[in-house]
Amino acid sequence: MTRRWPDLGALELLVGVDDHGGLSAASRKTGMAQPNASRAIKQLEQHFGMPLLQRSPTGSTLTPQGTVIAHWARKVLADTDKLLDIVDGLRADRSVELTVVASMTVAEHLVPRWLGTFRGLHPEVRIHLQVTNSSQVFDRIADGSCDVGFVESPTVPRNLHSVVVGRDRLVLVVPADHPWARRRKPLTAAELAAAPLIVREPGSGTRTTLDLALQDYERSAPLIELASAAAIRTSVLGGVGPAVLSTLAVADQVQSGDFRVVEVDGLDLHRSLRAVWRPPRQLIGPAGELVRLARRDGTG
């Protein structure tokens, strides 16, 4: 004969009678209306085939049998709470979220590949990507609004941890019909510094790298400041002027012949691409897994 499980809500009421001295108080604690509580206890008594409450005009108390069952009901309810905690934990694991913030160059050319691979390995993780410049990446990591960031800035704030996930190089590009495209000798760093350029906005990793590389030279004012590599590429193609951009950002245009790379003598524009995060030093969970994947992927 198959035995049926008792109603857990009724068991909670029975324990409540023991704890609070009556069915009325127990029903209030469990949020159940008095008539429904009375009906639930009667059904529990029918289920067990014995009286559980001694009813009187002044209230209800447990019978001896009810006292024994209430004792064991506490254990059942405690184990049920543990079960629900486990269910909550499993549900949380299935709805893990990862918020990533990346500077423009990394976001456009590398992060999609990293996130695609990550998604294939961890389909249960919901990923949110924010794209901004390096300076704002640092701000969003520091204030805790994002879990991990990726930047191409040459410096990282001391309150953040970082690791190199790849490398790239900035190059000077001009359209194919620009006079510099026909130069046989490289430009000097001083010539580059003196030339008006199309540049990224202050705070971007590309702008910071270029400014640091030319900090010992007298600089010309920028032709124009733009907030994305795409806008700068369009401006260069339109003949507005030369620009210094990541090899990642101009690879297609160089390969097609639309852009020519102009070498600059004595100027090192190699840079590291970094993942950044808040303490502690060891990054764990989905963010840590994404960084490990990015490092394995690498760019040079």
From TrEMBL:
Record keywords: DNA-binding, Transcription, Transcription regulation
Domain HTH lysR-type: 6-63
Keyword set includes Signal: no
One Pfam family, short name: HTH_1
Transmembrane helix recorded as keyword: no
InterPro entries: LysR_HTH_N (IPR000847), LysR_subst-bd (IPR005119), WH-like_DNA-bd_sf (IPR036388), WH_DNA-bd_sf (IPR036390)
One Gene Ontology term of the molecular function aspect: transcription cis-regulatory region binding
UniProt xrefs under CDD domains: PBP2_CysL_like
Family: Belongs to the LysR transcriptional regulatory family.
Protein name: LysR family transcriptional regulator
Species assigned in the record: Antrihabitans cavernicola
